[in-house]
Design goal:
- With 184 residues, this protein is α/β, with parallel strands linked by helices.
- Strands 1, 2, 3, 4, 5 and 6 form a 6-stranded mixed sheet that branches.
- The chain has 2 domains: 130 residues, Flavodoxin domain (Rossmann fold); 42 residues, no CATH class.
- A hairpin with a 2-residue loop joins strand 3 and strand 4.
- The longest helix has 15 residues.
- It is globular.
- It is built from 7 helices and 8 strands.
- The structure holds flavin mononucleotide.
- Flavin mononucleotide binds next to helix 1, strand 3, strand 5, strand 7 and helix 5.
Protein backbone atom coordinates (compact mmCIF):
# COMPACT_ATOMS: atom_id res chain seq x y z
CA UNK A 1 0.00 0.00 0.00
CA UNK A 2 1.28 3.49 -0.84
CA UNK A 3 0.98 6.09 1.91
CA UNK A 4 0.05 9.52 0.56
CA UNK A 5 1.50 12.20 2.83
CA UNK A 6 -0.76 15.16 3.33
CA UNK A 7 0.01 18.69 4.40
CA UNK A 8 -1.54 20.48 7.32
CA UNK A 9 -1.95 24.05 8.56
CA UNK A 10 -2.37 24.25 12.33
CA UNK A 11 -3.81 27.38 13.81
CA UNK A 12 -3.45 28.64 17.40
CA UNK A 13 -5.33 31.91 17.68
CA UNK A 14 -7.17 33.48 20.58
CA UNK A 15 -8.86 36.48 18.95
CA UNK A 16 -8.70 35.56 15.25
CA UNK A 17 -5.76 37.32 13.62
CA UNK A 18 -3.53 34.23 13.33
CA UNK A 19 -6.62 32.40 12.07
CA UNK A 20 -7.18 34.99 9.32
CA UNK A 21 -3.63 34.40 8.07
CA UNK A 22 -3.99 30.60 8.33
CA UNK A 23 -7.26 30.62 6.40
CA UNK A 24 -5.88 32.86 3.68
CA UNK A 25 -2.89 30.54 3.21
CA UNK A 26 -5.32 27.62 3.12
CA UNK A 27 -7.26 29.32 0.30
CA UNK A 28 -4.02 29.92 -1.58
CA UNK A 29 -2.70 26.37 -1.23
CA UNK A 30 -5.73 24.12 -0.74
CA UNK A 31 -4.16 22.82 2.51
CA UNK A 32 -6.77 22.40 5.22
CA UNK A 33 -6.59 24.13 8.61
CA UNK A 34 -6.85 22.35 11.98
CA UNK A 35 -7.18 23.99 15.36
CA UNK A 36 -4.28 23.24 17.72
CA UNK A 37 -6.78 22.28 20.44
CA UNK A 38 -7.85 19.28 18.36
CA UNK A 39 -4.27 17.95 18.71
CA UNK A 40 -4.11 16.86 15.06
CA UNK A 41 -1.86 13.92 14.21
CA UNK A 42 1.34 15.13 12.56
CA UNK A 43 2.98 11.83 11.69
CA UNK A 44 1.42 11.61 8.20
CA UNK A 45 2.02 15.23 7.24
CA UNK A 46 4.76 16.04 4.74
CA UNK A 47 4.53 19.74 5.50
CA UNK A 48 3.35 21.11 8.85
CA UNK A 49 2.63 24.83 8.90
CA UNK A 50 1.95 26.26 12.37
CA UNK A 51 0.39 29.71 12.83
CA UNK A 52 0.54 30.78 16.48
CA UNK A 53 -0.12 34.13 18.11
CA UNK A 54 2.29 35.58 20.65
CA UNK A 55 1.26 35.93 24.28
CA UNK A 56 3.87 37.33 26.71
CA UNK A 57 6.63 36.21 24.35
CA UNK A 58 5.36 32.62 24.06
CA UNK A 59 3.64 31.15 20.98
CA UNK A 60 0.15 29.91 21.83
CA UNK A 61 -0.05 26.11 22.01
CA UNK A 62 3.33 25.48 20.39
CA UNK A 63 5.13 23.75 23.21
CA UNK A 64 2.36 21.19 23.64
CA UNK A 65 1.84 20.62 19.91
CA UNK A 66 5.49 19.81 19.20
CA UNK A 67 6.43 18.12 22.46
CA UNK A 68 6.60 14.63 20.96
CA UNK A 69 7.39 15.45 17.35
CA UNK A 70 10.52 14.20 15.65
CA UNK A 71 10.72 15.26 12.03
CA UNK A 72 11.52 12.56 9.49
CA UNK A 73 13.83 13.62 6.63
CA UNK A 74 10.88 13.93 4.22
CA UNK A 75 8.91 16.17 6.60
CA UNK A 76 9.04 19.95 6.68
CA UNK A 77 8.06 22.31 9.49
CA UNK A 78 7.10 25.96 9.00
CA UNK A 79 6.43 28.13 12.07
CA UNK A 80 4.68 31.46 11.73
CA UNK A 81 4.32 33.76 14.75
CA UNK A 82 1.66 36.49 14.82
CA UNK A 83 2.15 39.37 17.24
CA UNK A 84 1.64 43.05 17.75
CA UNK A 85 5.31 44.06 17.73
CA UNK A 86 6.64 44.94 14.26
CA UNK A 87 8.78 42.02 13.04
CA UNK A 88 10.60 44.32 10.62
CA UNK A 89 12.42 45.73 13.66
CA UNK A 90 15.46 43.45 14.23
CA UNK A 91 15.23 43.76 18.03
CA UNK A 92 11.66 42.40 17.97
CA UNK A 93 12.61 39.51 15.69
CA UNK A 94 15.53 38.63 17.95
CA UNK A 95 13.27 38.59 21.01
CA UNK A 96 10.76 36.30 19.32
CA UNK A 97 13.53 33.96 18.08
CA UNK A 98 15.03 33.84 21.53
CA UNK A 99 11.76 32.76 23.10
CA UNK A 100 11.07 30.25 20.28
CA UNK A 101 14.41 28.67 21.00
CA UNK A 102 13.29 28.10 24.57
CA UNK A 103 9.90 26.67 23.62
CA UNK A 104 10.89 24.28 20.86
CA UNK A 105 13.02 21.14 21.07
CA UNK A 106 16.49 22.05 19.70
CA UNK A 107 16.24 19.84 16.58
CA UNK A 108 12.90 21.36 15.57
CA UNK A 109 14.18 24.90 16.12
CA UNK A 110 17.17 24.13 13.85
CA UNK A 111 15.09 22.53 11.11
CA UNK A 112 12.02 24.80 11.02
CA UNK A 113 11.54 27.62 8.55
CA UNK A 114 10.45 30.52 10.79
CA UNK A 115 8.44 33.59 9.82
CA UNK A 116 6.96 36.48 11.80
CA UNK A 117 3.78 38.35 10.91
CA UNK A 118 1.99 41.28 12.47
CA UNK A 119 -1.46 40.76 13.99
CA UNK A 120 -4.25 42.84 15.46
CA UNK A 121 -5.70 43.78 18.81
CA UNK A 122 -8.99 45.22 19.97
CA UNK A 123 -8.90 46.13 23.67
CA UNK A 124 -12.73 46.05 23.80
CA UNK A 125 -12.62 42.33 22.98
CA UNK A 126 -9.87 41.23 25.36
CA UNK A 127 -10.73 38.82 28.15
CA UNK A 128 -10.69 40.37 31.65
CA UNK A 129 -7.45 38.49 32.43
CA UNK A 130 -5.72 39.78 29.28
CA UNK A 131 -6.99 43.31 29.90
CA UNK A 132 -5.56 43.20 33.41
CA UNK A 133 -2.23 41.88 32.15
CA UNK A 134 -1.96 44.69 29.62
CA UNK A 135 -2.95 47.31 32.23
CA UNK A 136 -0.26 46.06 34.63
CA UNK A 137 2.34 46.04 31.86
CA UNK A 138 1.35 49.56 30.83
CA UNK A 139 1.53 50.79 34.43
CA UNK A 140 4.99 49.30 34.95
CA UNK A 141 6.25 50.84 31.69
CA UNK A 142 4.86 54.27 32.64
CA UNK A 143 6.99 54.13 35.78
CA UNK A 144 10.15 53.85 33.63
CA UNK A 145 11.70 56.58 31.48
CA UNK A 146 10.55 56.04 27.87
CA UNK A 147 14.18 55.96 26.69
CA UNK A 148 14.46 52.62 28.45
CA UNK A 149 11.51 51.08 26.58
CA UNK A 150 12.26 48.35 24.05
CA UNK A 151 10.72 48.47 20.56
CA UNK A 152 8.11 45.98 21.80
CA UNK A 153 7.33 48.20 24.80
CA UNK A 154 6.88 51.20 22.51
CA UNK A 155 4.48 49.26 20.25
CA UNK A 156 2.47 48.29 23.32
CA UNK A 157 2.27 51.85 24.61
CA UNK A 158 1.39 53.31 21.20
CA UNK A 159 -1.50 50.89 20.78
CA UNK A 160 -2.64 50.69 24.41
CA UNK A 161 -6.44 50.79 24.77
CA UNK A 162 -7.02 51.03 21.02
CA UNK A 163 -8.25 48.88 18.19
CA UNK A 164 -5.39 48.21 15.77
CA UNK A 165 -5.16 45.88 12.79
CA UNK A 166 -1.80 45.28 11.11
CA UNK A 167 -2.83 42.08 9.33
CA UNK A 168 -1.30 42.20 5.87
CA UNK A 169 -1.93 39.23 3.59
CA UNK A 170 0.93 40.29 1.29
CA UNK A 171 3.29 39.25 4.10
CA UNK A 172 2.22 35.64 3.44
CA UNK A 173 4.09 35.69 0.11
CA UNK A 174 7.51 34.50 1.39
CA UNK A 175 5.74 31.72 3.31
CA UNK A 176 3.86 30.60 0.21
CA UNK A 177 7.13 30.63 -1.76
CA UNK A 178 8.91 28.63 0.92
CA UNK A 179 6.19 25.97 0.89
CA UNK A 180 6.15 25.81 -2.91
CA UNK A 181 9.97 25.54 -3.06
CA UNK A 182 9.65 22.38 -1.00
CA UNK A 183 7.37 20.96 -3.71
CA UNK A 184 4.30 21.28 -1.56
C1 LIG B 1 -1.92 39.44 27.26
C2 LIG B 1 -1.30 39.70 25.91
C3 LIG B 1 0.05 39.49 25.72
C4 LIG B 1 0.64 39.73 24.47
N1 LIG B 1 1.99 39.52 24.31
C5 LIG B 1 2.55 39.82 23.10
C6 LIG B 1 3.96 39.65 22.91
O1 LIG B 1 4.68 39.20 23.79
N2 LIG B 1 4.49 39.99 21.72
C7 LIG B 1 3.72 40.49 20.69
O2 LIG B 1 4.24 40.80 19.61
N3 LIG B 1 2.37 40.62 20.83
C8 LIG B 1 1.78 40.30 22.01
N4 LIG B 1 0.42 40.45 22.18
C9 LIG B 1 -0.40 40.84 21.02
C10 LIG B 1 -0.95 39.62 20.27
O3 LIG B 1 0.07 38.73 19.90
C11 LIG B 1 -1.66 40.11 18.99
O4 LIG B 1 -2.77 40.85 19.37
C12 LIG B 1 -2.03 38.95 18.08
O5 LIG B 1 -2.41 39.46 16.83
C13 LIG B 1 -3.14 38.12 18.69
O6 LIG B 1 -3.39 37.01 17.86
P1 LIG B 1 -4.84 36.31 17.80
O7 LIG B 1 -5.82 37.38 17.35
O8 LIG B 1 -4.66 35.26 16.76
O9 LIG B 1 -5.12 35.77 19.16
C14 LIG B 1 -0.18 40.20 23.40
C15 LIG B 1 -1.55 40.40 23.60
C16 LIG B 1 -2.11 40.15 24.83
C17 LIG B 1 -3.58 40.38 25.01
Amino acid sequence: MVTVMKHIIICASRYGSARRYAERLSEQTGISVADYREAPSLTDSACIIYFGSLYAGGVLGMKKTFRHLTLRPEQKLVIVTVGLADPNIPENRENIRHSLEKQLPADLYEEAAIFHLRGAMDYQKLSPAHRTMMALLCRSLRSKPSEEWSAEDRALMETYGKQVDFVDFDSLKPILENIQEAGT
